[in-house]
Amino acid sequence: MSLAVTDLTYAFGAKTALDHVSFSVGRGQFCALLGPNGAGKSTLFNLLTRLYTTRGGRIEIAGHDMGRAPRQALARMGVVFQSQTLDLDLTVLQNLRYFAALQGISGAEATRRCEAAMDRLDIADRAKQKARDLNGGHRRRLELARALLHDPAVLLLDEPTVGLDAAARAALTGHVHDLAADQGLTVLWATHLTDEVRPEDRLVILHQGRILADGIAGEIAGPRPLAQTFLSLTSPEAAA
Amino acid sequence: MTRPAPTPAPSADGAPPVAGLTARAWGIALSAIVRREAYRFWQQRARLLSALVRPLVWLLVFAAGFRAALGLSIIPPYQTYITYETYIIPGLCGMILLFNGMQSSLSLVYDREMGSMRLLLTAPLPRWWLLFAKLVAGTAISVIQAYAFLAVAAAFGITMPWYGYIFVLPALVVTGLMLGALGLALSSTVKQLENFAGVMNFVIFPCFFLSTALYPLWRMAESSRLLRDICAVNPFSHGVELIRFALYGQMNWAALGWTCLAFAVFGALAVWGYDPARGMVRRKG
User: Fold this and answer.
1) How far is B44 from chain A (nearest CA, A)?
2) Partner residue opposite A103 with nearest CB, options B20, B39, B116
3) B59: which of A161, A178, B49, B179 lies 20 to 30 Å off by Cα?
């Protein structure tokens, strides 16, 4: 498995944010992590990216245990955070080069990878533009280009379409689906928007820190639209 | 947006990790973090101006006014009577390092609020190294500002022996690292940008006034033994004394020892403060 989460538990004081969460995603799978606000998605992402650590449970990225070999695990991972993490005073190229350096890539190799990443996301013509001057869609593209720069095995995206218009949202969702299908990239895509999930996608529904459903989206949804199933699963009545 | 990727597909699970784990990668990351800080500093040239104006006001206004009021006896490293302006030069260098150390950590709180700290901390490098790189970057900027101040002071006729300008470099670096580490440790405890101004007031002013920056210890002892004792244990005093002696080509071993010790303590606190087990960015999002 490219991404395996086993019995993960995390609490903020007395409040349990994640309660014995387990799931795994295979190579080339697009897994949507669906959950309403406050479900624990961001906490899970903070644990997956080692911004938090916990002794409750285990995370494995491309075969590397996050607890025992965090640097190896992080090196195999690309992340697009929910909040934008670009340096707005740097140009597109400078942002990419800075990230490449943080991954230990420099010189001609960094140049080659930055150019390839910009080409891939169709932002090469904006290389010298400051990130501040990019629109929301292009900023997200840049962040995705950056997350793929070091050829990760696993790509994590935390609500990456927040603030994007419908066209940019569809383009980004489609592109990441293609990455999983064509290049064997393992994708974990956190969202609360059901229309970003395709019927053939792997789906994990997280609610109040627990996994409510884990399977293929079309099967979980059944004959109803996914949005309806999702609402009925996460409604207060269902919880009661 | 959906152009085919020109590079090979990402490697399979368990493939050899990228270069991020070699020793060379540590240097590449350090250099990138320093260059980013330098670039930002270059873009905010007003910062250099404000960093110079503050100590120059002290030097040209405050010191001129106090010159008559404060008599100074001959104390090491000085071998003759000196003017008050000459006395406070090391203290004002320390002031630059102190303000800049706090400003660097302020930018860390800003980075954390803006999310770019997440990017840094998810790099496949030891966290202590990433924090150290931030510290080195901030110190480099501080030292440049301190030299700019010494140059302006020299233009106003307040000069040191020529070799002092060389010897002072390591002293400025060590003191800059120590004060930067203090800022780093503080930044790990401050969760919001707006709270930082208060912290700065409670740190910068006591640090500066309760030190040997403006008055020698014996002067302070004349008014209060307690104040003198506080000044004597203040790590900032030791940093200032290290700079003072270095400006005259002399080594103050005690000051160096205390400054290094303070650096080690503040550095350890910063690493502890940013420990992921403590949920450094334990904020929503």
Assistant:
1) 10
2) B20
3) B179
Q: ipTM exceeding 0.95?
A: no
Residues of A with Cβ-Cβ distance to B4 under 8 angstroms: 182
H helix count then E strand count, chain A: 9, 10
Between B16 and A19, residue with greater pLDDT: A19
pLDDT tens across A10-54, in order? 988 888 889 999 999 999 999 999 998 888 888 999 999 998 888
* Chain A hits for B34, Cβ within 8 Å: none
The pLDDT assigned to B14 comes to 44
Instruction: List, in order, residues 6 or more apart from B234 with CB less than 8 Å away.
Output: B207, B210, B211
List, for residues A35-44, the tens digit of each pLDDT value: 988 888 889 9
Q: Which of B32, B114, B125 sits opposite A98 (nearest CB)?
A: B32
A91 forms beta bridges with: A130
pLDDT the model gives residue A238: 63
Contacts of B38 in chain A (CB under 8 A): none
Q: Which residues 117-156 on chain A approach chain B with CB closer than 8 angstroms?
A: 119-122, 141, 148, 150-153
What is the tens place of the pLDDT at every residue in A81-130?
Answer: 888 888 888 999 999 999 999 999 999 999 999 999 999 888 999 999 99
pLDDT at B225 exceeding the cut of 80 = yes
